[in-house]
Specification:
Shape: globular
Helix content: under 10%
Mean pLDDT: 88
Number of domains: 1
Radius of gyration: 14 Å
Strand content: over 45%
Distance between the termini: 24 Å
Number of strands: 11
Low-confidence stretches: none
Largest sheet: 6 strands, antiparallel
Number of helices: 0
Structural class: mainly beta
Length: 119
């Protein structure tokens, strides 16, 4: 897994060239970003570097579109699953906003898009 953070975007690219791209441009005083977790229930952020993600590849069929905090509809998140054998890690993209500033995302390979939207 390689992580590229440039041109106002962050891209996560696995060994199969499947990518998740996220608009990383800040327009104002926003709270958005990404994190990794070993579980979606409960969600606990873990600090993983590229070397710890080596050999993990995206499951193209896995996509969870959810609200992180049921009491805060302004905080939205999506999750993607990375697998290596029986091990799983989840990439979570999150944005907490007032509806004005959104951040687009997409998952794909080459010209084929599997999942896309905005938070």
């Amino acid at each position: 897994m390689k992580i590229f953070n440039k041109n106002r975007k962050i891209n996560f690219v696995d060994d199969n060239n499947v990518f998740v791209g996220f608009d990383n441009e800040s327009d104002y005083n926003e709270s958005f970003g990404h994190f990794f977790t070993y579980s979606l229930d409960p969600i606990e952020e873990v600090n993983l570097t590229e070397d710890k993600l080596e050999g993990f590849n995206f499951d193209k069929t896995f996509f969870v579109d959810t609200i992180v905090d049921p009491n805060d509809e302004e905080e939205q998140a999506v999750a993607f699953c990375l697998e290596k054998g029986n091990d799983k890690i989840y990439l979570v993209l999150v944005n907490s906003h007032n509806g004005y500033y959104s951040h687009g995302f997409e998952m794909g390979k080459g010209n084929e898009i599997f999942h896309e939207g905005s938070l």
